[in-house]
Design a protein that fits this description.
Blueprint lengths: L1 H5 L1 H23 L7 H26 L9 H26 L4 H10 L1 H18 L3 H7 L1 H7 L2 H14 L7 H26 L9
The structure holds protoporphyrin IX containing FE.
Length: about 210
């Protein structure tokens, strides 16, 4: 099992799987196959993938509690960077293609529409995480400071869920399902950190 997770091929395969939603989107865009409302389609598609990758990133810590799955840690950075990639694409598509940098709409969206403000907060919180996701940044900051900064991922996930819930789709089950999943992952993380603080020997091995 350990050999499977440590293999370079597993990493490459997971990378390709993570990039495939983007490739699929480009393919459908090229063939003009984005449905009757392409703008809405791309916004929903990229937003959903950004949130899925964010939750996958959060899921790594609890999954590592399962015996044999501790090597999953090596995928966390890649999954987080894919979350940032899809979220940036999502925001860029909205600003550059949908509203075409229209200043009035932009100011209105980012001042009075709470769902936009939450989306913006979620994206902005991901920026320092992406910028410090490289080995040199970890060495430069020191492990403890780096780990503290990277707790921002939880705030980013909460803001992303608020962004989804506040879109007026609260009556549909999907946003609530994502919110429940996020709450469960945050709770597990909290329990793990309390447990390792009390019993440091239970810390998950980095191997
Ligand atoms: C500047 C930041 C952002 C802007 C301007 C923005 C804008 C939008 C817009 C216009 C929609 C489509 C609403 C509709 O017509 O149905 C949307 C949906 C969505 N966004 Fe964002 N967003 C931002 C950040 C984010 C981030 C960081 C995430 C996740 C990490 C995210 C996740 C979602 C999700 C899950 C949806 C709903 C998809 C669905 O309906 O299936 N957004 N966003």
């Amino acid at each position: 099992m350990n050999r499977f997770w440590r293999s370079k091929w597993t990493f490459r395969l997971l990378w390709l799987a993570s990039a495939s939603p983007f490739a699929w989107l480009v393919w459908r865009w090229y063939w003009r196959d984005l449905g009757v409302n392409p703008l809405e389609y791309v916004a929903r598609y990229t937003g959903s993938w950004a949130l899925r990758f964010l939750l996958l990133t959060l899921a790594i810590t609890p999954l590592r509690l399962i015996p044999g799955l501790s090597p999953l840690i090596k995928f966390r950075r890649m999954l987080g960077l894919f979350a940032f990639f899809y979220a940036s694409l999502h925001a860029w598509h909205y600003f550059a293609i949908d509203i075409q940098w229209n200043r009035e709409i932009l100011i209105e969206d980012l001042t009075i529409r709470r769902f936009f403000i939450a989306g913006m907060i979620s994206l902005l919180l991901m920026v320092p995480l992406a910028l410090t996701s490289f080995d040199r940044a970890i060495r430069w900051m020191g492990g403890e400071r780096w780990r503290k900064l990277h707790r921002l991922v939880y705030a980013s996930a909460i803001a992303a869920c608020a962004h989804y819930l506040w879109q007026g789709k609260a009556a549909t089950p999907t946003p609530r399902l994502y919110a429940a999943l996020t709450a469960a992952l945050l709770l597990t993380r909290l329990v793990v950190s309390i447990r390792t603080r009390r019993w440091p020997r239970l810390r998950i091995s980095q191997g």
